[in-house]
TrEMBL record:
GO terms for cellular component: outer membrane-bounded periplasmic space. One of its GO terms (molecular function) is thiamine binding. It comes from the Bacteria. Signal peptide: none annotated. Pfam families: SBP_bac_8 (PF13416). Transmembrane segments: none annotated. Keywords: Signal. This is ABC transporter substrate-binding protein. One of its GO terms (biological process) is thiamine transport.
Amino acid sequence: MDMATRRTFLKRSAGIGLVAVGGSYLRIGHAAEDHIYVTSSGGSFMENVRKYMAEPFEKQSGVKVTLVPGTNPAHAMKILSSRGTPPYDVAAFGGMDILRLIRADKLAQVDEKSVPSLADVPEKFKADWQGCGSMYDYSSVGIAYRPDKIQGGITSWKEFIERTAAGDFGKQVFFNNLSSNVRGAEVLSMFGRIYGSGFDDIEASISTLEKMKPHIFKFFTAFNDPVVLLTSGEGAIGPGWDGRTFIAEDSTNGLVKWVNPAEGAVSSGPVMAVVKGGKEDLAKAFMNYALGEEAQKAFCEAMLYGAVNRKVQYSDKLKDRLPDIDSVQLVDTELLVKNMSALLDAWNKRIAT
């Protein structure tokens, strides 16, 4: 590490219990072999967390980072059932499971003193987590489509809904399956906002989808399904993720496209938090690095996701494609949890049958 980088890391670490010893940074009172355990999903997401967050932090701090792959509910259950030392030091997964940990008092409080990078993260990415965490990227669900099948393109959720209901796209429309945790609740909440009284208007959401249902050929269950359906030619249009569609667009010479609807894309992302009773000071140092400008830019450029640090300046390849950090639409997580039972009931009675 060069001297400028070393001084920067030391300055940022001074408030979170790290001291310099023999060229590396150690938690006060702990040995050089200290390391932290961080939850993760698998696949390319984990590999990019490793490459752009964990490994650079290891080089700067001398602290080993072990990424533990698994599902959000499984990670959360291990923390919830732990007694004494928790299995992980950093919880990094979906918001609904983070809320379970907050309610069980399993997460430590973080602030700009203990995690200085939080100062560069807009409040909306932190507001749901009651002082315990922050989203560390955002992906956005907009409209993915085949330009060769959708003449003139598409500009808004309202246009997509009304043209689907009118049969303009034939039976080549796909949509999120609510029960599969592929952001169906968030998209339906946007329908409630457009045609009803707000994100929590379940009747407006379901009645809107009922009008579209005759022309929907598949309620997809996996995050990569929209790209698969589009590139195979089986589907023509439906809700899809920005980054995944961009990758497909670039690899197929524009066979597929993604649009940020006029009403706004529906965005969400994983949350990072510090687990109580673990190596809290080292976990906060890792969280500080992960939310910092350097890690955010590198990770999000690789994943084609949005960065939550407002200092990030995207490359030319990405800067005009992602929804702007200030225009991102986030549905309140507590609201989603509160409404999920009633929404699922209406879905099962009126859509799934």
